[in-house]
Amino acid sequence: MARLVVRPAITPIPPLVFTIVAPVVAAAIAALVETIPVRLDDNISVPVAAGSVLWLASMMTMASATAAGGAINAALPWAIGVNAITGWIGYRARTVSRSGAIVGALVGAIIYAGGGAGAWLLLFLVFIAASASSRLGLARKEQLGIAEERGGRRGAGNAIANCGVAAAAAIVAVTTPYGPAALVALVAALTAGGSDTVASEVGKAWGRSTFLVTTLSRVKPGTPGAMSLEGTTAGLVAAFGLAATGALLGLIPQSATIAVIAGATAGALVESALGATLEGPGILNNDMLNFINTAVAAAVALAIA
């Protein structure tokens, strides 16, 4: 498989930016993470969040940051306009809640401005796949009490959980010399979020034999961490389709599609294992599991590619 070789510029960003601006942003992100109502130890989640922001900022250089300003300014009007319209349409179509429309539009604008129109189109296709799969077998899901809340409407938490890693990758793509690698991470994160939702919703709608990945014991559909043959197959098909679409859009080389599919598969397995062990006690919630899924997918895809 072809390797992604990136030669970064050698001039770092001004010390003032990294010593003042980056820590302020990191502190704000860490404060938001601390407010998440789960039992995960803040001594783990908060420093990881802050450290990740500082790590991303450390990759910026003077040349890349200067170039990013022009690129973002050129894309920003389209990014805001397109996402404002799609957010409004999504809200009117009852596919997203009000908070989901606002936060989703913000995330979409970041992905458009950083990754380009192709990255946004992939995001849009992921959203369509997730929304459509949520409505599959809705009567059965409601009867079993495992349907998505708000009639399948996606909220702000869903947008951040499934697209937060992709948004961070888009920022890296436009502001650092590591654009090609960042786009692999972006495609992998979106593919993982979309394929996992398809797998979960198809499994809840039509899964006949649902089991825990940790013990292989059979459980009821909708059990945290549960998997099914039907859902897993649907998720793999969705992962292949989304990864191939990322290549067709020119976001990643065709040789990287296998890495993206492998990353999405690894992310789904990690999410299922953590869901089976940590979601029940309230240590992690579904949104955090989805975020971890996409982060693992991005990391595995980068390691392979």
Helix content: over 70%
Outline, from the CA principal axes?
Answer: globular
Major sheet strand order: 1-2
How much β-strand is present in the residues?
under 5%
The count of helical stretches stands at 11
> What value does the average pLDDT take?
85
Please provide the count of β strands.
2
Class derived from helix and strand content = mainly alpha
Radius of gyration: 19 Å
Biggest pleated sheet: 2 strands, antiparallel
Output the helix-strand order.
Answer: HHHHHHHHEEHHH
Indicate the low-confidence ranges by residue numbers: none
What is the terminal separation in angstroms? 7 Å
Task: Please summarize what this structure is.
By secondary structure, this protein is mostly helical.
How would you describe this structure to a colleague?
It contains eleven helices and two strands; from the N terminus they run H-H-H-H-H-H-H-H-E-E-H-H-H. By secondary structure, the protein is mainly α. A two-stranded antiparallel ribbon has the order 1-2. The protein has helices at 15-34, 42-58, 62-92, 98-115, 117-134, 138-144, 156-175, 179-206, 229-248, 257-279, 286-304, and strands at residues 210-212, 226-228. The N and C termini lie close together (7 Å).
